[in-house]
């Protein structure tokens, strides 16, 4: 299972306790003790994959970013105190989830990358459209850019120094990889 492990400040592990719970935990790797926790409420049904508060996690040395999977919401927490610093709420906050049915469930945000200067979220286009888009935010929560891609990326990473997004989709590309420069050329 994916638990979005991030090592920050050379000695702190920030990770999601998913699938047993949705909490975000911080462990001091030197003492091997849990030193912080962000508790996220779970729904009463047992299908954690379809929980409305499930999300994706990324962290840098000062901030934790949590992007909700099924609703247009992003929470930004401090690493030191694990307190909410900012909540970004979009128009689509009411999730459309059909427990047990991935095809009928609407996914809003699917993957998250924390860069040096910005964080990047891969979002699905509406069901009748192909591809995806990547939203870019600065760490104060301001929307910086949105890049629309004609192909769906199953995984991606960002090289900020070279203004490049690298993506992966083995269903479409011969070798599975896509390189997209942020000035708009593929």
Give an overview in words.
It is a single chain. With 186 residues, the chain is mainly beta. It folds into two domains: 1-95, Thrombin, subunit H (Beta Barrel), CATH 2.40.10; 115-186, no CATH class. It contains no helices and 15 strands. The chain has strands at residues 6-8, 12-16, 24-28, 33-38, 55-59, 63-68, 73-78, 84-89, 109-114, 118-124, 132-138, 143-149, 155-159, 164-168, 177-181. Strands 1-2-3-4 form a four-stranded antiparallel sheet, with no helix packed on it. A four-stranded antiparallel sheet has the order 5-6-7-8, with no helix packed on it. A four-stranded antiparallel sheet has the order 9-10-11-12, with no helix packed on it. It is globular and about 45 Å long.
**Rounded to an integer, what's the Rg over CA atoms?**
17 Å
Question: Which structural class matches the secondary elements?
Answer: mainly beta
Percent of residues in helices comes to under 10%
Low-confidence blocks of residues = none
Q: The CATH topology of the largest domain is what?
A: Thrombin, subunit H
CATH architecture of the largest domain: Beta Barrel
Q: Approximately how much beta-strand content do the residues carry?
A: over 45%
Distance between the termini: 32 Å
Mean pLDDT: 84
Strand order of the largest sheet: 1-2-3-4
Judging from the principal axes of the Cα atoms, what is the shape?
globular
Q: Using DSSP, what is the number of strands?
A: 15
How many DSSP H or I helices?
0
Secondary-structure element order, N to C: EEEEEEEEEEEEEEE
Main sheet? Answer: 4 strands, antiparallel
Number of folding domains? 2
CATH class value of the largest domain: Mainly Beta
